Amino acid sequence: MSRVRTLSETLLKNPRYVTIEDYRVEKVAEILADTELEIPTWDFRPLYPQVDNFEEMCLFYLIFNSINYCYFDHDSKKFSDNGRLHGSSLAATRLTEHWEDIKNPEFLANVDENYLLAELFRAECPISMVKERAYALREVGSFINRNADFTFRKFFQKYKSNAYYVSQAIPTLLPSWEDAFFKRAQLFVAMVYGRFQHDEIRPFEQGLEDLTVFADYRVPETLIRMGVIVPAASLMTRIHRRERIHSGSRKELELRAASILGADAVMDALNTRKETAINSLHLDYLLWSAGRKVDEAPEGLFIQHHITHHYTMTTDY
Fold first, then answer.
1. Do the beta carbons of residue 213 and residue 283 sit within 8 Å?
2. Is residue 56 within 8 Å of residue 103, measured between CB atoms?
3. In whole angstroms, what is the distance from residue 132 CA to residue 176 CA?
4. pLDDT digits over 216-246, tens only?
């Protein structure tokens, strides 16, 4: 069992703030049984560079996920550009627009906070945690500079082309990625696999089943809407009021743990109903997509319609 699942089970042995509703797990699986699930290709225009080079796209996904977290500020204002793009979509688009500069490790190793605010992530509502993001980008650039012979293909082969092993190794190379739930490291692996899943030589041949859904803001929000995970009244009140939930607090940890195990329960229930097995990459994309299109969901899938995601200022997600 992966360490993320082990941690999640430990946290929810005696839950204080979040529980999993078994009845809703079965009901959600029943409603979604005939839904065709897919692993996204992560090449959506204009968010990502439209290139087929394996090493270049792996570098893009690494750089993007190094800063892929917390797209709101202390006043709950979301990183946005006149409402056209916001959050992770805007961040990915900005990186793509500046890709010729950003992919140069020498340039990347010397970026500063002013560059992020005034140029790279310029927006009507500025991006938050600029100091942390500038540091993370420099960390990637410095790592590439120090390891001139590094290639992603060799890196993946070193870990036996195992998606789980690679996700566990990334924070040992890039300390700013450290997170008990390995959200960004797992998402990086998922993006690489999704983009090259149909290639003759796939980046990963094993380990996908050991990955979990990516415990962030959208996944718990969607599972709460579905009734699969149920926060205690005190936690639900904080979510409704958009009050800060401290990073590393028992409330936040249980919310993320319940997202992992609740999603696993739905996945297991779906796999008893489907001819072709699905994994967490399928389910995470379903939860992320469904949470953005609540009004288009099948009847009965959502039992709560008027909630927002929880607010935690963190570099983990």
1. yes
2. yes
3. 9
4. 999 999 999 999 999 999 999 999 999 999 9
Whether 179 contacts 227, CB under 8 Å: no
For 232, phi and psi rounded to 5 degrees?
A: -65, 160
Task: Give the pLDDT confidence score for residue 294 in this predicted structure.
Answer: 81
- Cβ atoms within 10 A of the Cβ of 181, count? 23
The Cα 206–Cα 197 span in angstroms is: 12
Helix residue spans in the chain (DSSP H): 3-11, 22-32, 54-66, 87-97, 99-102, 105-108, 113-115, 130-146, 152-158, 163-173, 183-195, 218-226, 233-240, 250-271, 280-292
Q: Which 3-state string (H, E, C) describes 24-44? A: HHHHHHHHHCCCCCCCCCCCC
The phi, psi pair for 181, rounded to 5°, reads: -105, 0
Is 90 exceeded by the pLDDT of residue 304? no
Determine the Cα–Cα distance for residues 210 and 166; give it in Å rounded to an integer: 11
Tokens for 81?
């550009």
- For residue 183, count other CB atoms closer than 10 A to its CB: 25
User: How many other CB atoms sit within 10 Å of the CB of residue 76?
Assistant: 11
Three-state DSSP class for residue 20: strand
pLDDT band for position 292 (cuts 50, 70, 90):
confident
DSSP for 136-186, written as a single string: HHHHHHHHHHH-TT--HHHHHHHTTTBHHHHHHHHHHH-GGG--TT-HHHH
Q: Can you name the residues that pair with 206 across neighbouring β-strands?
A: 162
CA–CA gap between residue 5 and residue 24 (Å, rounded) = 21
- On whether the CB atoms of residues 181 and 261 are closer than 8 A, the answer is no
Tokens of 267: 């996945």
- In total, the chain counts a number of residues equal to 317
Q: What is the pLDDT of residues 24-53, one digit of tens each?
A: 999 999 999 999 999 999 999 999 999 999
